[in-house]
Amino acid sequence: MRLSYSIKLFSYGHSAGELGGGYDSISNSYMFNCPLTGAAQFITPGQSSAAPESAPWTGWRTFSWSINDVQFAAAIKYLQSQFPGKIPTTDPTKWVLGEVHLNAQLIIVTPPAELGWSMHGWQVSVTN
Known about the structure:
It is a single chain. The chain is an alpha+beta fold and 128 residues long. It has one domain (2-94). 11% of the residues lie in helices and 18% in strands. It contains one helix and five strands; from the N terminus they run βββββα. It has one helix at residues 69-82, and strands spanning 2-8, 20-24, 29-35, 44-45, 65-66. The chain has a three-stranded mixed sheet, covered by helices on one side. The protein has a two-stranded antiparallel ribbon with strand order 4-5. The chain starts with a strand and ends in a 46-residue tail after the last helix.
């Protein structure tokens, strides 16, 4: 079973503060979508983290956060409430970090579409 724990940093034209869950049949994965701010039961934003954005910007912004065992278990419980009987355990020790994915999605409001996207200093750490 796969679980995608998505942190919302950008949502064009509307608030990035929406919490939600979903299922992707193609990848057979359950998705937990969490805003960077306003959901302390699921995520802790870093002290120097930029806030989520709803409009494009230029220049560098630093986004940082952490997720502890209690928050991870709360996210799984949230998904269990959305998909009864489908998520077998909320025990964080039964899950393994399999990959990290940076997802850039494109919405075309007025053609042609343009994606200007850069990243540097990506860091991921896992503690037991």
